[in-house]
Amino acid sequence: MDLEQFNRLLLQSVGVGLAVADPETLRVLVANRRMRDWFDLADGDPPSLGEILPALDRDRLAARMAAGRPLTLETEAKIGRKRASLAVEITSHDRDGQPVLLVECQNVSKLRELEYMIQSYSQMVEKQNRELRKEKERVERVLLNIMPKTVYEEWRQFGVTTPRRYDSASILMLDFVGFTEMAVTEDPSALIAELNDIFTAFDRIVEQFGCERLKTIGDAYIAVSGIPEETADHAANIAGVALRIRHFLERRNESHQHRWRCRMGLATGPVVGSIVGVQKYVYDIFGPAMNLAARLEAIAEPMEIVMSETMQALLPPIYRSDELGLLEIKGFGRRRLFRLTGSDDLTARPAGRPASWSAARLAE
Fold this sequence. Notes:
- Residues 111-145 form a coiled coil.
- It comes from Kaustia mangrovi.
- The chain contains 11 helices and 13 strands.
- The chain is an alpha+beta fold.
- It has 2 domains: 3-113, Beta-Lactamase (2-Layer Sandwich); 150-343, Nucleotide cyclase, GGDEF domain (Alpha-Beta Plaits, 2-Layer Sandwich), CATH 3.30.70.1230.
- It is rod-shaped and about 120 Å long.
- It starts with a helix and ends in a 21-residue tail after the last strand.
- The chain has helices spanning 3-13, 33-39, 49-52, 58-66, 109-146, 149-158, 179-185, 188-208, 234-253, 288-299, 309-314; strands at residues 17-21, 28-31, 71-79, 82-95, 98-107, 164-176, 212-217, 220-225, 262-276, 282-286, 304-308, 319-329, 333-343.
- The strands form 2 sheets. Strands 6, 7, 8, 9, 10, 11, 12 and 13 form an 8-stranded mixed beta sheet that branches.
């Protein structure tokens, strides 16, 4: 076997399709076996590159060849029963002093399949990541409903939270008048929808004053200020929340069938805050201020806000209040109490308690 026969055998046996074409007519001058198989080239009148490569742009080819740069494109060919993707590269060469075009075709079907799989996998991973982010956001919203944000951040980072004592915080405890009777006489779906609407408005008011909604227990609503972030304005903040909530209910009652009336108790003092429970987490606070707020809420008249002397002393002058006198509070003894009536931001209006109100029920 001479060198020319060896080169011809090598040309026919390589795994890529090779062809030589005339740069003027683009007619295929010679092609190896793989090129003939892919493009079904028969003996006789040779085809042009435009016939076997429909995507070929002659002007672009001429420009590339004039610049001495290869032209690359992709096409398809039928291999057996399947369509194969072929990467085509056309370069300009000199053959015995005459310019010729060398066309090289490689089967890149496996590569394209791999790229498609990688792209599909990336899209699937991205979709799963979006779903995970949505689920994480949903879980965070749920957890932020049961614990303050800073407590949640500590719990997420360390897996535990440290019980913390707050020397001075303010608590608002609210309960609706006659809700138990409404629960058995009114349509439950409509009643809960109204309660949800009202609590949503309360949440916005609480957020507006930089306070935290601690929890709801049935129709009871508890908000705090000074927890977990300590602030010197905790009494003023929680007083503002109480007045705004009452103002909201008064405005709402003017246009709704159900007239919602509430009692509110405000107290200031030391408390301890922590997450309690193992399977069902809840952030709760304990201490005399919490108990006193509950006592004051229980003795308040409908749409009345009763607060302790300690809290009244911390309020700035824009808040107005009436003294209720020294009253016996169960578990706390005799305490001087006040009724929060308004502020410069809201019209002062004594609410609830008639002049003949007796302190006897305080010790019940």
